[in-house]
Design brief:
By secondary structure, the protein is mainly alpha-helical. Helices cover 69% and strands 6% of the residues. Helix 1 (5-29) runs antiparallel to helix 2 (37-56) and helix 2 (37-56) packs across helix 3 (63-92).
C-alpha cells in the first residue's frame, strides 16, 4: 500500500500537502466552488503515487495507496479552502460578515 512511513510523511504530507494547501487557497481566492478541490486532489494523488514509485520504488498501481494519498491531499486542500474563504469573506464584507473562528463566520 504505502512504501514507508517516511515516504508518506515526507512526500504526501510535506511536499504534496503544501501543494494541496496552495491549491485550496487558489481556488478559494478566485471564488471557485469547493468541489473543484476533488479533481485537483485526485490528480495530485496520482502525481504523489508516481513520485513514490519513481523515487522510492513504491507500488505505482496501488488503488488503496492512491486513495489514501488522495484523501490526505483532499483533506488538506479543503481545510485551506475553508480557511481562505473565511478570511476573504470577513475582509471583503466587514459590514455583513463577522469571523467567529478559523473556519466559520457569522452573518450580522
Amino acid at each position: 500500500m504505502i512504501t514507508s512511513l517516511g515516504v508518506l510523511v515526507g512526500l504526501t504530507l510535506i511536499l504534496f500537502g503544501g501543494c494541496a494547501f496552495m491549491t485550496g487557497q487558489a481556488l478559494a481566492s478566485t471564488w471557485r466552488p469547493w468541489w473543484l478541490v476533488l479533481p485537483y486532489g485526485l490528480m495530485l494523488g496520482a502525481a504523489d503515487r508516481f513520485l513514490g514509485f519513481a523515487l522510492f520504488r513504491g507500488e505505482l498501481l496501488s488503488v488503496w495507496g492512491w486513495l489514501l494519498d488522495s484523501a490526505i491531499i483532499i483533506a488538506i486542500a479543503l481545510a485551506a479552502f475553508r480557511l481562505t474563504r473565511t478570511r476573504r469573506m470577513a475582509n471583503q464584507y466587514p459590514w455583513l460578515i463577522q469571523r467567529t473562528g478559523p473556519f466559520s463566520w457569522w452573518k450580522l
